[in-house]
Specification:
Oligomer: single chain
Number of strands: 30
Mean pLDDT: 91
CATH class of one domain: Alpha Beta
Number of helices: 7
Strand content: 35-45%
Distance between the termini: 36 Å
Structural class: mainly beta
């Protein structure tokens, strides 16, 4: 392989490799296994990466590899008929490989033995594990995996010493294969003594509780794997090995040794950062401390603080010197108790105190000195339980939450009706996780839902039901999973019982919606904490944070001296703010292409909208945005840059009477295509 932006002298770069004549389902696998690879290109440009140099000896080995791989996939008569190297430039070649596969060998008959004397439910489970069926193309890898799956099915039901052997008789005349599987279950086994090695500072009791492995229990291989995962979730062990002793098949007893490595009991973190976007320019510090055996019992205690300051009104589109410093801070304490109530349930208590400003983008011509800047002292408390069910694919969290927001003014003054909002609610969060990896996902699905019930307990001032389901799917488009198609669909519904009238079009009137009316202020203030919003780096990337959907005057955010009342006619641009919605839909489609580790490029399409009505999805304003993105896989997660472009003509398709959409507001209405961009830089995938 050569490096740089030129091909090494006397050598040729591989421009492309093409294999003709093979079934489409095997093309990616064969191409990924070749030593002769095409030079990768970014956006179709040469010279971005190291060149793949053509080597004739490697090509000869590739031809043998293709033939053998096709034979393993059931094409036993496959031959490579030709390999052509076509010069396309002075120092570049195209490799063309032609293959004749012939007819595949198919499964003709499947025979099993050794299952007749097993309990019915066990023999049924083992039979279900055998996925090879008559007329399937005979695949040697699938055949080997079938033996392993049958043995695992037995091992999960007490037969720790089970063995499964297999034989395949291939007839190239009839192109069929007769498969024979023989199961040797051995004795039904139970767990022997369970020993834990490696604990020095941590107590053994909570570790055993999380294991849920007891001497005399029926042996199960899958239960051992679940036990290992449960220990790692304690967050106090950096390494866990479960070693069953299978050296004595006649005993029918399997002793288990668990070897663990303890993590550091105490960890301190210190850092700093800055933020520059359309909302703010700010700097902050980060302090953290974690104890993984707080007061014994493997309790995990975490304390963190994030002090900072916002330099108002400096931001990415208003690069002027700041006129005011807005102090802010986030202080959080979290206590987790493993083995709470039972071995694999974790109890937790979270407390927090935050102080922060509520900021919105400045409109053109607005005077920062006249902006009313509302801030909040926020106190939060949550207590609940966490548990993972169904082979660790069903995480469930049940909690009770209480949050109080005390408003004050960083700049200007508060208005009548702007009062403390207390929200009290139980919440149930559940998910079905079928992803291959929670961070670098390439295949699978993730479905989640959150249900909150706002009530008047503990001083709660809102009464509602809030539901937020979401589904994500990931499909690899190539054998090496370097190209992945990802999709996300999310919905949101709020059913308010004692607020929300200011969003209902049927209730809108010149007097009722006067933003100076204290009743309107109270209602809008509750909506600020309970309504749905859309737009931003993890939502619709063509828009800044929370900017999608209906807009209008908000009483407690009126700039000083501005008349934002309905009686004054169309409110001035400085009065227009996002109102949120009682119903939400969002959809995203993303194509991810790993060009060269650790770099990935993406192309995405986002759409979303909010409705001011209850249980009403409005598709007349899809707010479609498209764009490219770049990801860098850092140790702390993917660092990403996304550029969202609002597609002209696909923002507002149908106007709703009495509703001012974001695309009709200053800065967005009739904007030229070359300014309809939003940039996002942060850590973590969009979904």
């Amino acid at each position: 392989m050569g490096c740089g932006h030129s091909v090494p002298p006397g050598r040729d770069a591989v421009q492309s490799v093409r294999i003709d004549g093979v079934p489409s389902e095997h093309e990616g696998e064969l191409e990924a296994g070749l030593a002769t690879q095409p030079t990768p290109r970014l956006f179709g440009l040469w010279g971005v990466y190291e060149y793949e140099v053509f080597d004739s000896a490697s090509l000869e080995r590739d031809l043998e590899r293709i033939q053998r791989q096709l034979q393993r996939r059931g094409y036993y008569e496959a031959i490579v008929r030709a390999a052509r190297v076509v010069r396309t430039d002075e120092d570049k070649v195209r490799v063309e490989i032609e293959v004749l596969t012939g007819d595949p060998v198919r499964v003709g008959e499947v025979r099993t033995s050794g299952l007749a004397d097993l309990p019915f439910e066990v023999s049924t489970a083992v039979a279900r594990a055998l996925t090879l069926q008559r007329d399937d193309v005979f695949d040697e890898d699938v055949f080997e995996r079938a033996k392993l799956d049958m043995a695992n099915a037995l091992a999960d039901r007490g037969y720790a010493f089970a063995e499964v052997t297999g034989r395949a008789q291939v007839d190239l005349v009839t192109h069929t294969a007769v498969l024979e599987f023989e199961a040797k279950p051995g004795k039904m086994s139970v767990l022997g003594p369970v020993r834990i090695e490696g604990l020095s500072q941590l107590p053994e009791g909570p570790v055993r509780d999380a294991l849920k492995l007891k001497e005399g229990d029926v042996y199960s291989q899958s239960e051992l794997e679940l036990a290992r995962a449960a220990l790692l979730e304690l967050r106090a062990l950096s390494r866990v090995e479960l070693l069953p002793d299978l050296s004595d098949p006649e005993s029918a007893v399997v002793p288990v040794t668990i070897r663990v490595t303890e993590s550091a009991l105490r960890t301190a973190t210190l850092g700093a950062g800055a933020r520059l976007d359309v909302l703010r320019f700010s700097a902050h510090g980060r302090l953290g401390w974690e104890h993984r055996n707080f007061l014994g019992g493997l309790r995990n205690f975490t304390a963190s603080a994030r002090p900072g300051v916002t330099f108002f009104p400096t931001r990415i589109d208003y690069l002027a010197a700041p006129t005011r410093m807005l102090p802010e801070n986030s202080l959080n304490f979290r206590l987790r108790q493993p083995s709470f109530l039972e071995g694999r349930t974790t109890g937790f208590i979270d407390t927090s105190y935050n102080i922060y400003p509520l900021l919105y983008p400045l409109t053109e011509g607005s005077d920062p000195e006249r902006e009313r800047i509302i801030g909040y002292n926020e106190v939060g408390l949550a207590a609940g339980l966490e548990r993972v069910f169904w082979q660790r694919r069903l995480p469930v969290t049940l909690s009770y939450n209480w949050r109080a927001n005390f408003p004050f003014a960083y700049q200007g003054s508060t208005v009548e009706g702007l009062e403390t909002v207390i929200v009290s609610y139980p919440e149930l969060i559940a998910a079905l996780d079928f992803r291959d990896h929670p961070v670098t996902t390439t295949r699978g699905a993730f479905i989640s839902n959150s249900i909150q019930l706002g009530n008047s307990l503990f001083g709660g001032l809102v009464s509602d039901v809030r539901i937020h389901p979401e589904a994500r799917g990931f499909v690899p488009l190539d054998y090496g999973r370097r190209v992945v198609l990802a999709a996300r669909v999310g919905l949101g519904f709020v059913f308010p019982f004692n607020y929300g009238e200011t969003l209902d079009p049927a209730a809108q009137g010149a007097v009722d919606l006067d933003p100076t009316n204290p009743n309107v202020v109270r209602d809008q203030h509750k909506l600020l904490f309970r309504a749905f919003y859309s737009g931003g780096p993890n939502s619709n990337r063509g828009y800044p944070y929370r900017r999608v959907g209906p807009h209008g005057p908000i009483g407690f955010l009126q700039p000083t001296g501005e008349d934002c009342s309905v009686d004054a006619g169309t409110p001035p641009p400085a009065c227009i703010r996002p109102l949120g919605g009682l119903s939400l839909w969002e959809a995203s489609l993303e194509l991810r292409f790993t060009v060269a580790d650790p770099w990935t490029v993406v192309a995405f399409v986002d759409a979303s909208n909010l409705s001011t009505r209850v249980a009403h999805l409005e598709f007349g304003a899809p707010h479609v945005s498209v764009g490219p993105g770049v990801r860098y896989a850092s140790p702390v997660g993917p660092i990403r840059l996304d550029i969202g472009w609002r597609v002209p003509g696909l923002q507002l398709l149908r106007e709703e009477p009495g509703i001012l959409d974001v695309s009709q507001t200053p800065g967005f209405v009739d904007e030229p295509w070359y300014t309809a961009f939003t940039f996002h830089v942060l850590i973590g995938e969009a979904f």
